[in-house]
């Protein structure tokens, strides 16, 4: 499990880990032994904690109720419970989620998914929390005006993974990079664009804070980035039945795209630039094995 592999970095960031599920202690004990899991797996067999956190998945119950043949309920069951339909064994399950709780028991952050097969990777959550953990470094290089380093939160993903790719951009001396808002003045703003990939979904890109720069030759005040900054793009590997079929024999996913930008110094505005980019990730199969008590 990815969480197990991240325990050391999580601990260095002051974070402990515990997983809560509706499974019995016996099932969790066998699962921990099978997967060499060392962090606590807590049994919430009556779903009391799941209900207290407000993430009880009631769709399974609806899928077994008197209106279970209603097309809307059938569609909800497929999305929120199982493509194989509702079963009594999954009553009491939660919507998948991760909560960050402080030492006083207060929830400080939460990451909850609706689709039962989608999960934020631990590394992606750590990135969003700003814990300072190290992303997986990729290629790096120089353009005429920037130093660019590509990275990703995870070297391996699976169907349903929500992770991030990123560019760390360092403007060279006296270089200003046009930021969102400068497009209204006719400049090309810095943008990371990933090409469409079947069954891959992109979240809105995160842009850094900018500052207003006075470009004296034209007496213009434009938004720019003058210090090192990061462009981060969240990516979700689709987990529908169709996506699983498409990825069944795929070992590697390559995301391609480009970095577009335009820069200036104190005297000149330079031509727009486009830089091609790729990120390569190993695609691991879903773990369908489940421990069943005898």
Topology:
Blueprint: H1 2-5, H2 7-12, E1 19-21, H3 25-35, E2 41-43, H4 48-52, H5 59-64, H6 71-80, E3 97-101, E4 107-112, E5 119-120, H7 122-129, E6 136-142, E7 146-152, E8 156-158, E9 161-171, E10 176-178, E11 191-194, E12 200-202, E13 211-215, E14 220-225, E15 229-237, H8 241-247, E16 252-261, E17 263-264, E18 273-284
Parallel strand pairs: 1-2, 5-9, 8-18
Antiparallel strand pairs: 3-4, 6-7, 7-9, 9-15, 10-14, 10-17, 11-16, 12-15, 13-14, 16-18
Give a quick rundown of the structure.
Helix content is 19%, strand content 34%.
Description of the molecule:
It is a single chain. With 294 residues, the chain is α+β, with helices and mostly antiparallel strands. It has two domains: 2-129, 3-Layer(aba) Sandwich (Glutaredoxin), CATH 3.40.30; 136-284, Immunoglobulin-like, CATH 2.60.40.1250. 19% of the residues lie in helices and 34% in strands. The protein contains eight helices and 18 strands. It has helices at residues 2-5, 7-12, 25-35, 48-52, 59-64, 71-80, 122-129, 241-247, and strands at residues 19-21, 41-43, 97-101, 107-112, 119-120, 136-142, 146-152, 156-158, 161-171, 176-178, 191-194, 200-202, 211-215, 220-225, 229-237, 252-261, 263-264, 273-284. A hairpin with a 3-residue loop joins strand 6 and strand 7. The protein is elongated, with a radius of gyration of 23 Å.
């Amino acid at each position: 499990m990815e969480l197990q592999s991240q325990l050391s970095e999580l601990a260095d960031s002051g974070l402990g880990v515990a997983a809560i599920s509706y499974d019995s202690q016996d099932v969790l004990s066998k699962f921990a032994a099978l997967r060499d899991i060392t962090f606590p797996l807590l049994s919430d067999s009556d779903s009391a904690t799941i209900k207290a956190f407000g993430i009880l998945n009631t769709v399974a119950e609806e899928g077994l109720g008197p209106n279970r043949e209603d097309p809307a309920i059938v569609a909800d069951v497929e999305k929120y419970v199982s493509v194989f339909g509702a079963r009594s064994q999954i009553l009491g399950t939660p919507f998948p989620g991760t909560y960050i709780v402080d030492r006083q028991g207060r929830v400080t952050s939460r990451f909850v998914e609706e689709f039962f097969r989608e999960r934020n990777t631990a590394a992606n959550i750590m990135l969003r929390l700003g814990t300072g953990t190290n992303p997986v470094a990729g290629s790096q290089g120089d353009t005429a005006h920037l130093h660019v380093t590509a990275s990703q939160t995870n070297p391996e993903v699976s169907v349903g993974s929500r992770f991030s790719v990123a560019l760390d951009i360092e403007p060279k001396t006296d270089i200003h990079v046009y930021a969102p808002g400068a497009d209204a003045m006719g400049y090309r703003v810095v943008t990371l664009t990933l090409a469409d990939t079947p069954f891959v979904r992109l979240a809105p890109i995160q842009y850094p804070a900018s500052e207003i720069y006075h470009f004296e030759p034209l007496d213009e005040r434009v938004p720019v980035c003058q210090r090192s900054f990061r462009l981060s793009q969240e990516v979700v590997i689709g987990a529908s039945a169709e996506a699983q079929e498409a990825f069944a024999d795929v070992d590697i996913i390559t995301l391609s795209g480009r970095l577009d930008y335009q820069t200036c110094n104190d005297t000149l505005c330079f031509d727009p630039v486009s830089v091609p980019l790729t990120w390569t990730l190993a695609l691991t199969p879903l773990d369908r094995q489940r421990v069943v008590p005898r």
